[in-house]
């Protein structure tokens, strides 16, 4: 893995970053819902071509399918109904990719080797299964080797609320973890993160540099959004925290700012820089961290919490007092401490009915149970402490 020192200055981190994930939100792409804004998209495509030509690998996470579909189908607003949203995403996604491919041709030098785009639509399930997650990684790395621009979106046509990733800020962070990106650039309709929502607070001040995971970020990002976008600023600052787990720093900047991407590459202090000063997780634990939906919950006593948190041990049934959910072996479950706080997550080794009958039992008492695989409820390699 390439060495990414979290203590380097912002300027150095920007100018040295070789692999970027760039995320562009719906409010920008569709000019606040008025259909795909070809002129602006052309501006970003031109800059992405220049980044590629200067040796930077770029992965684009592009929203906009639902908004573009709504406009194409002649609807006046984003539908609340799931089926209509899925239909809009299907129509809009093809319009979106067609626009990118056309602009890549129009904006590039005719005598250069063409940069094509490759559409990658991901669902939550693709990231839940370790095998599919690794397949997605190798497919994306192959596209980069071939000088293709991968354009990623959630597969909204087949995702539904219960199992979707929710917003593309989260998706972009998961992709940053998947590919060990150096930099995640989230382009939005504001200059960055302010100390209050600038839409309702005209005097709000821009934060220029902050550490990922800083508690005040969650407080000030609130939950408001443009109305066109999905996640709002809260999703972006949470995405930065998630990205930091692979040592990826994040810049949240205004996509309407002239040559924003090239100026970031050249080290200019644009937007809000969120330093990845969090302990870096190994690849398997990053995949675990990217798992968004748990199938159940285990309630632990104080001794088990200490064994996991301080001693780095595996979870034994003796310290588990209760369970929730009908999970199966291999599913992701959350671990709660006696106060009800979730402090860890992991892949459980046993089905819920086996866990139920082993609650509070010492290992020796269950040694002969044929359904008790591996002797531990969650192995420490499959456990992530938050
Ligand atoms: N502290 C904050 N700083 C900046 N923007 C904020 C803040 N809190 C809430 N917001 C809102 O978040 C919006 C951007 O999120 P969103 O609408 O989801 O955009 P996108 O479509 O780019 O993902 C901004 O337009 C702004 O109103
Ligand atoms: N996948 C959806 C976008 C989801 C989303 O996060 O949108 P945004 O908050 O504008 O980045 C789409 O393409 O419409």
UniProtKB/TrEMBL annotation:
Q: Name one GO molecular function term.
A: glutamate 5-kinase activity
Task: Tell me which residues bind ATP.
Answer: 23, 188-189
Show the SUPFAM superfamilies listed in the entry. Carbamate kinase-like, PUA domain-like
Q: Does the keyword Nucleotide-binding apply?
A: yes
Named in its record, the pathway it takes part in is:
Amino-acid biosynthesis; L-proline biosynthesis; L-glutamate 5-semialdehyde from L-glutamate: step 1/2
| EC assignment | 2.7.2.11
Where does the record place the PUA domain?
296-377
The record's listing under InterPro entries reads: AceGlu_kinase-like_sf, Asp/Glu/Uridylate_kinase, G5K_ProB, Glu/AcGlu_kinase, Glu_5kinase, Glu_5kinase/COase_Synthase, Glutamate_5-kinase_CS, PUA
Alphabetically list the UniProt keywords. Amino-acid biosynthesis, ATP-binding, Cytoplasm, Kinase, Nucleotide-binding, Proline biosynthesis, Transferase
Q: Where in the cell is it found?
A: Cytoplasm
* Keyword Nucleotide-binding recorded: yes
Residues noted as binding substrate in the record, renumbered to the chain: 63, 156, 168
Q: Which reaction does it catalyse?
A: L-glutamate + ATP = L-glutamyl 5-phosphate + ADP
Say which family it is in: Belongs to the glutamate 5-kinase family.
Instruction: Sum up the protein's function in the record's words.
Output: Catalyzes the transfer of a phosphate group to glutamate to form L-glutamate 5-phosphate.
Name by which UniProt lists this protein = Glutamate 5-kinase
- Which species is this UniProt entry from? Acidithiobacillus sulfurivorans
- What lineage does the source organism belong to? Bacteria, Pseudomonadati, Pseudomonadota, Acidithiobacillia, Acidithiobacillales
> Source gene?
proB
């Amino acid at each position: 893995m390439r060495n990414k020192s979290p203590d380097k200055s912002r300027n150095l981190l920007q100018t040295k970053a070789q692999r970027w994930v760039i995320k562009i939100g719906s409010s920008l792409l569709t000019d606040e819902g008025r259909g795909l804004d070809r002129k602006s998209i052309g501006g970003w495509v031109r800059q992405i071509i220049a980044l590629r030509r200067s040796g930077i690998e770029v992965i684009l996470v592009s929203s906009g399918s639902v908004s573009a579909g709504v406009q194409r189908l002649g609807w006046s607003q984003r539908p609340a109904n799931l089926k209509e949203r899925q239909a809009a995403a299907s129509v809009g996604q093809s319009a979106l990719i067609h626009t990118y491919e056309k602009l890549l041709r129009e904006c590039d030098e005719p005598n250069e080797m063409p940069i094509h785009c490759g559409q990658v639509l991901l669902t939550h399930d693709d990231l839940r299964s370790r095998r599919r997650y690794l397949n997605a990684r190798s497919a994306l790395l192959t596209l980069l080797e071939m000088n293709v621009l991968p354009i990623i979106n959630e597969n909204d046509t087949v995702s539904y609320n219960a199992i979707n990733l929710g917003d593309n800020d989260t998706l972009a962070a998961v992709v940053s973890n998947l590919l060990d990106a150096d930099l995640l650039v989230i382009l939005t309709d504001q200059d960055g993160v302010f100390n209050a929502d600038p839409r309702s607070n005209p005097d709000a001040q821009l934060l220029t540099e902050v550490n990922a995971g800083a508690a005040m970020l969650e407080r000030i990002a609130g939950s408001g959004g443009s109305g066109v976008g999905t996640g709002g600023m809260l999703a972006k600052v949470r995405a930065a925290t998630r990205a930091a787990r692979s040592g990826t720093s994040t810049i949240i900047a205004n996509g309407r700012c002239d040559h924003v991407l090239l100026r970031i590459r050249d080290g200019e202090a644009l937007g809000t820089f969120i330093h990845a000063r969090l302990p870096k997780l190994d690849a398997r634990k990053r995949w675990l961290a990217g798992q968004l939906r748990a199938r159940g919950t285990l309630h632990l006593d104080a001794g088990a919490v200490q064994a996991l948190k301080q001693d780095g041990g595996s979870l034994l049934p003796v310290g588990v007092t209760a369970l929730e959910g009908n999970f199966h072996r291999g599913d992701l479950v959350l671990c709660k401490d006696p106060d009800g706080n979730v402090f860890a997550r992991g892949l459980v080794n046993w089905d819920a009915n086996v866990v139920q009958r082993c609650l509070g039992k010492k290992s020796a008492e269950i040694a002969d149970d044929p359904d008790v695989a591996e002797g531990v409820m969650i192995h420490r390699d499959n456990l992530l402490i938050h």
